[in-house]
Design brief:
Length: about 140
């Protein structure tokens, strides 16, 4: 009997679980080689660029959490509304240069993310969040 491919929801949930653990290899295992990623101030194409971006986040924040409070699914697309939490314990590199030194501040913010899954991999991810609220939460 052939192995069953995980559903799009199972793939996104596995990525979230790997994120909570800070396991970059496990997160990246769910991305296609040509994954397209969009977020405020960020537009990336390809798995290597996506890995570098995730390294920045995981290096800047510890105690990472993500909890989905609403999800909409249609075919190979998932839209999650979620809350991300963490603690700013490392330098946060900013798009376009510069960085924010670690403040130790806790963060908690709502976001929406759209994932497109094909062949058992995330081929596109678009994240929408309040970038200004995140930066303001880092003030000590």
């Amino acid at each position: 009997m052939p192995a069953t491919e995980p559903t799009p929801a199972q793939i996104v949930d596995a990525m979230h679980e790997a994120f909570r653990r800070g396991d970059l290899a496990a997160i990246a295992a769910h991305w296609s080689d040509d994954v397209d990623y969009r977020a405020p101030g960020v537009a990336l194409s390809g798995k290597p660029a996506r890995i570098e971006a995730e390294k920045i986040w995981l290096g800047a924040f510890s105690e990472n959490g993500v909890e989905t409070y609403a999800r909409f699914e249609k075919g190979d697309e998932i839209v999650d509304f979620a809350v991300m939490t963490g603690r700013h314990t490392g330098p946060l590199a900013l798009p376009g240069g510069g960085e924010i030194a670690p403040t130790g501040a806790p963060i908690s913010g709502r976001y929406a993310a759209r994932y497109t899954i094909r062949g058992g991999k995330v081929v596109a991810q678009e994240v929408i969040y309040d970038r200004l609220a995140l930066v303001e939460s880092l003030k000590t």
